[in-house]
């Protein structure tokens, strides 16, 4: 299973070769992500392994890049990291020169495309074009302040992010297990009423099932209560 997806790792790793890191190292990190995806993959959820693995491979490679580049160049906010991973690709699409400032219309296009400010685009472009800095290097030759003093991250650390992801996956497994105790009609009605971004109306479900809206509502409430009790039973006490 792993061997058949090594080409996928190489393909994804090659898309990150513009960050100045050895491709073989990117592939190695991508393989770590692939191993994680295979370990956690559940075919019963209806996803293809390639689709599921792609997220883990990219996450592993991006995390490696984040640790390899200086924080001064990369930035610490979500917007800065989004720019860090997308600016070169967008510049290439616009055939913009790698060095020097962007044209105003290019800045506007990138800012709109990535939902960031134009100032953030300009600053990230200059960071990527400039030399790498030590976090403990002085901001000015005559000054006492260091670059580290200017980096205030509101981002969660990797451990917290990973923990939340694990908790989310665990909750999804619990929900799947609880839903398996419902019959097909209960599962469908509960999904369409409570698990969709735009819930289906009682009226539409009433027409689809040929029963009253009140009956649909009763089935929804009963199914939800079954799921709630099942999840509560599975929770550690």
UniProtKB/TrEMBL annotation:
Residues 25-38, 201-227 form the RNA polymerase sigma-70 domain. It holds the Pfam family Sigma70_r2. GO terms for molecular function: DNA binding; sigma factor activity. The keyword Transferase does not apply. GO terms for biological process: DNA-templated transcription initiation. Keywords: DNA-binding, Sigma factor, Transcription, Transcription regulation. Sigma factors are initiation factors that promote the attachment of RNA polymerase to specific initiation sites and are then released. Belongs to the sigma-70 factor family. This is RNA polymerase sigma factor. It comes from Thalassospira lucentensis. The lineage of its organism: Bacteria, Pseudomonadati, Pseudomonadota, Alphaproteobacteria, Rhodospirillales.
């Amino acid at each position: 299973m792993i061997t058949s997806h090594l080409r996928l790792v190489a393909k994804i790793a090659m898309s990150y070769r513009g960050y100045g890191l050895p491709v073989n190292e990117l592939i190695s990190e991508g393989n770590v992500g692939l191993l994680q995806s295979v370990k956690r993959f559940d075919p019963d959820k209806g996803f293809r392994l390639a689709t599921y693995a792609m997220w883990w491979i990219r996450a592993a490679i991006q995390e490696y890049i984040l640790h390899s580049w200086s924080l001064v160049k990369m930035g610490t906010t979500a917007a800065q990291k989004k720019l860090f991973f997308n600016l070169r690709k967008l510049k290439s699409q616009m055939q913009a020169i790698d060095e020097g400032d962007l044209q105003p219309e290019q800045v506007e296009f990138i800012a709109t495309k990535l939902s960031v400010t134009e100032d953030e685009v300009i600053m990230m472009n200059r960071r990527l074009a400039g030399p790498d800095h030590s976090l403990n290097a002085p901001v000015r030759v005559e000054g006492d302040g260091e670059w580290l003093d200017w980096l205030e991250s509101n981002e969660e650390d990797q451990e917290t992010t990973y923990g939340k992801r694990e908790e989310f996956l665990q909750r999804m497994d619990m929900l799947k297990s609880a839903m398996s105790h419902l019959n097909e009609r209960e599962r469908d009605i509960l999904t369409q009423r409570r698990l969709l971004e735009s819930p289906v109306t009682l009226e539409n479900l009433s027409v689809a099932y040929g029963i009253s809206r009140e009956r649909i509502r009763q089935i929804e409430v009963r199914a939800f209560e079954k799921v709630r009790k099942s999840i509560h039973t599975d929770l550690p006490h």
